[in-house]
Amino acid sequence: MPGCNHCPSDEAAKSAANNPGFRKVLWIALIANAAMFFIEVGASWSAGSVSLLADSLDFGGDAANYALSLFVLGMALQTRAKAALLKGVCMGLYGVGVLGFAGYAAMHGQVPSYATMGVVGLMALSVNVGVAAIQYRYRNGDSNMRSVWLCSRNDAIGNLAVLGAALLVGVTQTAWPDLAVAALMATLGLTASVSVIKQARAEIRGETPAGAAHSHGHSH
């Protein structure tokens, strides 16, 4: 979910970089998120669901974040901070894009297919619960390890919101529950973007905000 930023201290980064099990978990999470991105993009257009589209972009963003995390794992704090700055900008674009789609759908969209939303939402929930399960053993590790687990846990909560929207769309036969969940996800993305960019810029300047090493702002 938006806000899954993890820039641990140098000692924490070395610990994560030297842990082959954690690297393997990141690779599994990357592949699973990338696969769900493509599945949900297609399903969102087929169903006419903005919340599914928002969730698909979230999966895509998480996959990119995992790839970036693998690339900078063990590198110096400033290098990771620059990567985090890029993540923050992308999260902001995600939020603006989803709000734009939601606004367009509110004016020109139709009632989405709640059946498709439900089926794909359950699939997404299963993937995130599975990824969170394999990350569970690292939940009390350094800030990098813990934040990765929190990302998947919070993403699963987002999937439950999509399932709730599907149920309400079916009951009300309107698109508003779908649009409301999409707007909520976009707002979370924008809020997390501001937080991540602020912390990353401070770290690039050589400052470390209090509690930054343990910041898991969430998203994703």
Features:
mainly alpha, single chain, 7 helices, 78% helix, 220 residues
What report would you give on this structure?
With 220 residues, the protein is mainly alpha-helical. It has one domain (10-209). The protein contains seven helices and no strands. It has helices at residues 10-17, 20-47, 50-72, 77-108, 114-135, 143-172, 176-204. InterPro entries: Cation_efflux_TM, Cation_efflux_TMD_sf. The chain crosses the membrane at residues 25-47, 59-77, 84-107, 113-136, 156-173, 179-197.
Oligomer: single chain
Radius of gyration: 17 Å
Morphology call: globular
Helix content: over 70%
The rounded distance between the terminal residues' Cα atoms is 4 Å
Task: Give me the number of helical elements.
Answer: 7
Low-confidence segments: 6-10, 209-220
Beta content: under 5%
How many separate domains make up the residues?
1
Organism: Limnobacter profundi
Domain Cation efflux protein transmembrane: 26-201
Transmembrane segments: 25-47, 59-77, 84-107, 113-136, 156-173, 179-197
InterPro entries: Cation_efflux_TM, Cation_efflux_TMD_sf
